[in-house]
Amino acid sequence: MLRDALAGAPRRGLALLAILLVVLCGAPWLAGDYLLTVLITILYFAYTGQAWNVMMGFAGQLSLGHAMYVGLGAYAASLLYVYLGIGPWIGMLAAIAIAGACGAAIGFLAFRFGVGGVYFAILTIAFAEFARIGFDHIGWVGGSAGFFLPVANYSRNDLWNLRGSPMMFYYVMLGLTVAAFVLCHLLLRSRMGYYWQAIREDEQAARSLGIDSFRYKMIAVVISAGMTAIAGVFFAFYYNNLFPEQVFHISRSIELILGPVIGGIGTLFGPIVGALLLTGLSEIMQDLLAAFGLDVPGAKQVFYGICLLVVVLMLPNGVWPWLAARLGVSGARR
Amino acid sequence: MAASIYLNVTVSGLLTGLVYGLMALGLSVIFGVVRVVNFAHGEMMTVAMYLAIVAFNAFGLDPLIMVVPLAGALFALGYALQAGIINPFINRPEHSQFILLVAVALIIVNLLLIVFGPDARSVQTSYSFDSFALGALIVDATKVYAAGVSVLIAAALFAFFRFAPLGKAIRACADNYTGALVVGLDIKRLYALTFGIGAACVGAAGAMLVLLIDVTPALGPAYTLLAFVIVITGGLGSMPGALLGGVLIGLTEALAGLLFTPSAKSMFSFGLLVLVLLFRPQGLLGKRA
Amino acid sequence: MTHISPKRARAGISRRSFAAGAAAGGLLAGSAPFRIARAQAGALKVGVLLPRSGAQAGIGQDCQRGVEIAPAIFKELNLPELAIMNADTETNVEVARARAEKLINDGAQLLVGAFDSGQSTAIAQVAEQKGIPFVINIAAAPPITEQGYKFVFRNFPTAPMILGDAFANQKEIFQAAGSAPKSVVFMYVNDTFGTSMHQGISSVLPKFDMPYKLVEQIAYDATARDLSVEVAKAKATGAEALLMVSRLNDAILITRELIKQRWSPMAVLSMGPGWYEDQYLKTLGKMSDGPLSFVPWYDPNKKLSRQLEAALAKAYPGINLNTNHVFTFEALLVAADAFKRAGSTDPKALADAIRATHITDNVSIGPGIQFNEKGQNDKLKNAAIQNRAGKLLTVAPKAASNAQAELPMTAYDKRA
After folding, report:
1. What is the pLDDT of residue C416?
2. Are C151 and C170 contained in the same domain?
3. For B93-131, how does the pLDDT look when each residue is reduced to its tens digit (9 = 90+)?
4. Mutate which of A66, A108, A118, A136 to disrupt the B interface (most B C-beta within 10 Å)?
5. pLDDT interval class at A154 (50, 70, 90)
6. Which residue of A76, A279, C107, C232 pairs with A95 in a disulfide if CB–CB is 3.0 to 4.6 A?
């Protein structure tokens, strides 16, 4: 199966990928703590971007409320851990189930009633806001005062309970991102992947060929929701506190999709390149402004916005396709 | 609770809803004609509000008087935005438009933060604290003025699109793009004009809203969302729909706040939105595409 | 969606792709250049984390004023010098954590911040992990000092402490004024602080045997721009007084609504920010008089308070001394004092020194700054202040007051 998966990939692309993986695996030994935090952030956004990409890039549905799945996953696993002592890896299953169910509900409502495009996007925003306001009012999850996970010491790495040093979290996130990448690659090359691409390009035509677009769109939504929920579990155990205002907020949903959109929708490397670029950009901007003595609050965001603008204007398909062409690795791999 | 509170709250919701309706009208025009998902809508309104405050504090010009100049200023901004940046994005997929306008919104919000600082600003006119008392009914004076002017502007806009040749041309673009091209209309210029008009609407709404609420740089996003909820509920491409949607949302939030817990009142507007999307996706007054 | 035209894949790794790979690695390493730790002698490097942009920007920038005026005063007090490193948390938990990491990476030996409970929690975890002392200036959520941290210290009352003192002070004021409301309606903003207060009220209120009955609790959305419905609801309860937890913008909005809806409660008892802030006083003019705020505050009779007040008036004329300035200043005071006693910049020595803090010549109300075994200063007392003619007078507790409270509040429509 490995040979099959790797077939058709340009040699150069594989080599680059291998180099990247080695660098990433070795990073914690070379990087300082601050850089490690930045890398964890990059991987987190690469992972969630990839999850979102399944719905958008593969099934063509624009979701602007993806933070809801992060939040649902986070709260589900946290509540199970704090109230019932259930470890996060088991809690993750509950998280996936709950998020998947919500995704299915939204998908069902939207697709059965023919809600698409911008309307679907607004629908997802509405549900995310629902969740935000709802959780703000639920007493036993803390409401807006927040839900706190008990923080243990950092000297021991308890992988089962996800309590430990940043290095442990880094490898967990790296593992998740690689797994997401592999999963998406396999999905794309599967029959379902081709159905998705067909639906995305022209749903009418696909249906006329006998592809059950409703079913495959639903599957994409559920997979996307489930994957995102796993990120939520990680989020909860890494930050140890959850506030509905922050977890479900629309700015989180927007943050999430910046990576894949800038990187390249529907591509495999898009979310990763996007996450790297955006987080790196943000940090570099911070350093540059400090170096020039321009410590004005808001200045960084202005420059960040301008960069976003420039990238979107000049590279409409995203950075990865352009980069891939430059590196000479575009081809059978998308 | 006494009947008077229901009356007061209903009237208040209605009046506020009319101002929201004017704001949403701008989005309806932009979205309905140019088909751009303007996620910087609320931010444009925030700009108008800050301009109104500057005009008031520097020159003592009441926002009610400043409605027309502010609308004009926003018209210019909208026109420039459309002609300059947004035009190539009209046929691009929604997510690209979305990111473009999110970037624009981000820039506007933080420029406002840098220029005006984070503190809330407001306009304190001589009638800011006034209210009319009619028996048990106590109505906020500023809301009455703001709602009144909003209705006037909306009426002017209706008239423009109904009777003016330019207005009809714009409607033609919206109804039948190819047909409009065939007939020889300059689509690019008309789109820019339309965006400008939509922005002017939002500018006028901002001038009105500044009498009712305080401005902070981060005010925009909530109103962008509100505008979308209203436009979709009322019906895309229908101007009475935008006003109706505004009133409906204003009333829903007011009554929901009264009957349930006020902190959850937005849930009801979103609930209404979901119902409309599912059962009447063209909106209450919209036409089936 | 356009297609990418397939290109002929060339075998092997060319110089170009190798360079690209190296560049990617360089981007990773270069995004946060390594800083060699500088020599330890000299000033203590203190990282100050505050929300300077985002939703809490106004408060963050106000806290910053407390930072700016500190150095001159420390010099007068013969305290050692602090090298301040400012950072912006952008009102975002993730950014707060990353900035804390960066400050420590850049050599910060002590952290101060961060106004918000959520962001403070994130920073606390980083600080605890790295063994860097973190002195919280303002954050009221109880859980932060319940985690068993050894390096986190909070010189600010928790929500239950604020509530308890509020009720005690209210009783004192009612007794002195000879009148008390028979019923109150509690309106609170549905955010972290407001909800903490709401959660505390049911357990704290019964302990105090207040003369009034709490008839209803009304929560409102933190981002609400129109509070007419909420105020109408409060008015309809028939309560005599308004018990509040709000922020600045809501305070202004609510006051306007009170005037427009023609309701002048007997008293406005605010247990949070907003009703005493400069913006409130400036915006509402004579309509700003009257509300009582029960908040962590400075003791106007203490010497250092007068010094701080003078320094603030000089640096920022027209700005009243408030909670933000006071507690941010005191957090730095704790740092400087600990540095002096520890005699070294070693974080562990500093933490031990902070644990032994006992500053009686301070600014806030109470016996002084000291920390219990959880790192919390549980001896802090809160004051009651009242707005009068654009100034803030401390009306309770008696030991720290400089005026008598005016009760009931002059009706809004009777103000000339």
Report:
1. 63
2. no
3. 878 888 888 899 999 999 998 899 887 888 888 888 888
4. A118
5. low
6. A76
Give CA–CA dist B158/C252, Å, rounded: 36
Say if residue C176 is in the same domain as residue C290: yes
Residues C88-101 have pLDDT tens digits of 998 888 889 889 98
Gap from C232 CA to chain B (nearest CA, Å): 7
Share the mean pLDDT of chain A: 86
Asked if B129's CB is within 8 angstroms of C54's CB, the reply is no
- Indicate whether C238 and C349 sit together in one domain: no
Chain B residues with CB-CB distance to A134 below 8 A: 264, 267
Chains that touch B (3 or more CB pairs under 8 A): A, C
Q: Which domain holds residue C100?
A: 44-157+301-381
In chain C, positions 282-301, which contact chain B (CB-CB < 8 Å)? 283, 287
Residue A303, class by beta-carbon neighbours within 10 Å (0-12 exposed, 13-18 middle, 19+ buried)? middle
A156 reaches C (C-beta below 8 A): no
Would C166 be classed as within a structural domain? Answer: yes
Radius of gyration (C-alpha) of chain A in whole angstroms: 20
pLDDT at B236 over 80: no
Domain count, chain C: 2
- C18 within a domain of the structure (yes/no): no
Q: Which of A299, A245, A296 is nearest to C61 (CA)?
A: A296
Report which secondary-structure segment, H or E, holds C217: strand C213-220
Determine the residue of chain B that is closest to A57 in CA distance.
Answer: B95
Strands (E), chain A: 147-148, 241-242
Q: Judge if C235 and C125 occupy the same domain.
A: no
Q: How far is C82 from chain A (nearest CA, A)?
A: 19
Instruction: Look at residue A60 in the predicted model and tell me its pLDDT.
Output: 78
CA distance linking residue B151 with residue B25, whole number of Å:
11
Which C residues in the span 200-229 are in contact with B, Cβ-Cβ below 8 Å? 218-221, 223-226, 228-229
Structure confidence at residue C254 as a pLDDT band (50, 70, 90): very high
Same domain as C282, residue C405? yes
DSSP 8-state code for residue C364: B
Q: Quick check: C236 and B1 CB within 8 A?
A: yes
